[in-house]
Amino acid sequence: MVEKEPVGELDPRFSSEGATAIEWAQAREHLVDAEVYWLSTVRPEGRPHVTPLLALWHDDMLYFCTGPTERKARNLAANAHCVLTTGSNMLNKGLDLVVEGEAVQVDDDGRLRRIAAAYESKYGSDWHFEVRDGVFHNAAGGTALVYEVAPTTIFGFAKGEYGQTRWRFSA
């Protein structure tokens, strides 16, 4: 969990004249409200893998889930470094966010119940999970591993009046 709010640093090399750093509260709100994220992982032979998924910004961490045999789970088993992105595909408006960190599997049933409740609250009853034995269980009988990503760095890319802001987090 982030102990204090990070301070945004504007990079003038990639920002419009007169741009200001994005406030952390605005970036956090975008992380909370985003419905679709893109997860980038690395395959064992070094090739990149990118896939869309649902995720939560909850308690200053990003959470996502995936089946234990899916490519992203297998990639994370070999290399926990990952990037999650979210934003707008509009050129001149919106805010894109890039979250860098390491994915750590969550297997504590108590924490998983809180995360499951947050998923259902955000995405609706189609995303209801039962929790047991350290994993999510869905109505179709499938299981999902849950990962937590504590951010090391987050980049924000404002559009229109372009500005690149970086927030750094302590480990």
From TrEMBL:
Cited Gene3D superfamilies: Electron Transport, Fmn-binding Protein, Chain A (2.30.110.10)
Record has Oxidoreductase as a keyword: yes
Stretches of the chain forming a coiled coil according to its record: none
Protein origin, superkingdom: Bacteria
Pfam families: PNPOx_N
Keyword terms of this UniProt record: Oxidoreductase
Occurrences of domain Pyridoxamine 5'-phosphate oxidase N-terminal (ranges): 26-127
The keyword Oxidoreductase is annotated on this UniProt entry: yes
Classification via PANTHER family: HEME OXYGENASE HI_0854-RELATED, PYRIDOXAMINE 5'-PHOSPHATE OXIDASE-RELATED FMN-BINDING
Name the record gives this protein: Pyridoxamine 5'-phosphate oxidase family protein
Protein species of origin: Micromonospora sonneratiae
Phylogenetic classification of the source organism: Bacteria, Bacillati, Actinomycetota, Actinomycetes, Micromonosporales
